Amino acid sequence: MQKVVKKYDSYKDSGIMWVGEVPKHWNNKKLKYAGIITNGSTPSSNSPNFWDGNIVWVTPSDLSRLDSKSVVSSERKITEDGLNSCGTSLVPEGSVILTTRAPIGNLAIAGTKLCTNQGCKSITTLGSFSSLYLFYQLFAGKEELISLGSGTTFKELSTESLKSFEVVEPPLSEQVAIANFLDSKTVQIERLIQRKQEMIALLEEEKTAVINEAVTKGLNPDAPMKNSGVEWLGVVPVHWNLKKLKHISKLISGAAFDSGEFLKSGNYKVIKITNIQHNRIDWKDIEYLSDEYAKSFLRFKIENGDILFALTRPIISSGIKSARVEIEENAQVLLNQRNAILRAEGSISQDFLYYYTLSDYFFKMFEASIDNTGQQPNISPISIQNFSICLPPLNEQIDIAQAVSRECQRIENLKRSFVSEISLLQEYRTALISEAVTGKIDVRDYQPKPINSQQLELA
Known about the structure:
This protein is α+β, with helices and mostly antiparallel strands. Helix content is about 35%, strand content about 20%. Among the domains are: about 25-170, Adenine-n6-DNA-methyltransferase TaqI, Chain A, domain 2, CATH 3.90.220.20; about 220-390, DNA methylase specificity domains (Adenine-n6-DNA-methyltransferase TaqI, Chain A, domain 2). It is built from 14 helices and 25 strands. The strands form 9 sheets. It has a 5-stranded mixed β-sheet with strand order 4-11-8-9-6. The chain has a 4-stranded antiparallel β-sheet with strand order 16-24-21-22. Strands 7-5-10 form a 3-stranded mixed β-sheet. Helix 4 crosses helix 7 (about 170-215), helix 4 (about 130-140) packs across helix 13 and helix 7 packs antiparallel against helix 13 (about 395-435).
């Protein structure tokens, strides 16, 4: 990727700590003189005639889901009556939209006429300011904006603090040049990031394919096959035997602990339904139990390598939520209700069982067994116990699990390298924006060059 190292001829101290030095001919300006700041508001939720209209009404949640810098729609829209009923106002296309709470600092450019709720403020730039340049400058100043937030329940950036926020003002022609330069450069960077994200997705597909093939067909491509007689499973090696999970494993439902006994610290951790995510345990927001209370529930103790399932609530509404547990030596961990432990018994490897639960075959059985007829999605332990599994001999299970583990580790290593590269690209993008909008580099003569796909790969 083309590097930009050209500097301006002379600099001065801007007097703005996060900006530092700027080109000598640039000026400072409080934001209230750069644009008109408009607050947002929310119509009453008790008035149906205020909602489901055609006026775009942007919230911080809408901005958090954007995949570009332009916002043209919103999850909820309001009517003309809703607009007139509260303190929000329409702002023109091109206005800069800034979230000022939950969180502070997310940005977008209005791609249409719109209004916002009270979690956002809109800045409609005046003649001497380019809205796109201001967008990039506020992006660079995000940490400073966050530091100006105040409040006890949550941090909020007040209108007065925003009005007093100092920005730097190059001549308008330079603002346009800087914005065009950053548009060109950030598009290149985002294409690179997208390509690496696509590679991560392909690697994830490869991992799933490796697991599917190994746990349903084995490692020998020349092995004689037979029809399994099971939907979704197809043919399997002739020497593999069809079993029900209940015949080769134990399924233990979690305990109904008294929530009044939960503590913020202790020797016994409790895994709740919210801690079980797809293929990982979220160890944040863990509850604890006292030794005295916990000793009556030791039959619900989780062992290292156990497979955990969420059984109910919206946690499983989007499909399976299961994870294998890695527990530190001597750690005491118990399982809360609405979850279950799957543990191999007898002639089955826990490792093989784990990879089986990651297969598409298992996912399809799980999803087909979710009961959505009640108030909350639910899958019963009995349904899981009756899932079918086709088993090779124990020594073959061990070989398969070891081979899959090696392949998964190779794939995970590649994924980690792409994740690291994405992080570096994001850091480069942030640094480049900061350098350009504060004049650390001179981009007035920048001419974008076409970038072909090979150059993107080599950048």
